[in-house]
Amino acid sequence: MNMLLKQTLTASVLATMLTGTAFAVPAEAPPVFVKRVADGLITRLKADQGKLQNNPAAVKAIIRQNLDPFVDGQAFTRIVMGTYATNQNSTAAQRAQFEQNFRNTLIENYGTAFAKYSNQSYTMRPYKATTSKNPVVSLDFNNKGDKIPVSFQLADHGTQWKIRNINVSGIDLGLQFRNQFAANVQRNGGDIDKAIATFKPDADAAVNKK
């Protein structure tokens, strides 16, 4: 194969790959994605409801399998770390460690909440289509007569959506967790490693903050 033909074929393959990446879009509409994730989680909770309260390991396994894969951990990490997520203020290794710790602690938080699951339901709010790569889908969880509004901000990953932030009852969890982390950095004298190791995002405190 002569050099010109080889270069032409290589350029053609690269162009095809780049074009496919640029125009790849999630197959599901945002509300369809959120409904699928919510229904999958609730189905598992209903199926295992009898053993949840006294088996935290089972609850955490359900969260890991039915919610964690749909969370954009890197985006959530950048939101929560804020200015500490920049190359000037942290290393790639520190950010990776933060993401791992953050995911594990969120699983603990959600596990505690879902261990109390007792056939709660939800209703989807009307969704207005948008061209944004970060659309927001909102729903109301019905908990013993109380409606808890929850909004999921999504991230376009080309072939599927992922959850990059959550708003509960008008409270931006990403922002509240960011404030909690910044306070933890200060408590640790600016030591990022210690701040990451000791950071425990408190969802209850975040949601109840007025």
From TrEMBL:
The keyword Nucleotide-binding does not apply. InterPro entries: MlaC/ttg2D, Tgt2/MlaC_sf. Keywords: Signal. Residues 1-24 form the signal peptide. The keyword Signal applies. Pfam families: MlaC. PANTHER family: INTERMEMBRANE PHOSPHOLIPID TRANSPORT SYSTEM BINDING PROTEIN MLAC. This is Toluene tolerance protein. It comes from Acinetobacter silvestris.
